[in-house]
Amino acid sequence: MDALYREAILDHYKHPRRKGHLSEPDIQYHDHNPFCGDELTIELKVENGVVVDAAFDGRGCAISQATASMLMEEIVGKSTEELKEVDKQYILDLLGIEIGPVRLKCALLSLKVLKAGLYGLEEWPE
Ligand code: FES
After folding, report:
1. How many angstroms separate the alpha carbon of residue 56 from the centre of ligand 1?
2. Residue located nearest, by CA, to atom 2 of ligand 1
């Protein structure tokens, strides 16, 4: 089973989904993993509290970039309130493999960026 998940991770890394930028994102947040310097930007288009478009850009290891790609596919159509509930376990379930503490930071980079962006919108409404 692990092999299937590993293959999916590699596929997302080599052929990232929703990689790029949105023309007028409502939410945009950029951050990095302080341990390695790998970077990630997430952009969301939100209508009536629901994510209608999403994109990411960044550079980094297979786990960080593949997780961002997988997460982008998952979040379109979900409400920002729902997405605030997304947690570490959700990300680990997406990846589907056991990962050690160092790789966990890689996997959680996109969650950190997503959450910061979501809460930023609440703090600075239009
Ligand atoms: Fe940098 Fe994974 S090694 S995020």
Report:
1. 16
2. 106
For the domain spanning 2-118, the CATH number is: 3.90.1010.10
Ligand 1 nearest atom to the CA of residue 38, by list position: 1
Structure tokens at 116: 């910061």
**Which residue puts its alpha carbon closest to atom 3 of ligand 1?**
61
Q: What is the pTM of this model?
A: 0.91
99's CB contacts (< 8 A; 6+ apart) are: 63, 92, 106, 107
- Given CA atoms 83, 16, 98, 35 in this order, what sign does their dihedral have? negative
Report pLDDT digits (tens) over 14-48.
999 999 999 999 999 999 998 899 999 999 999 99
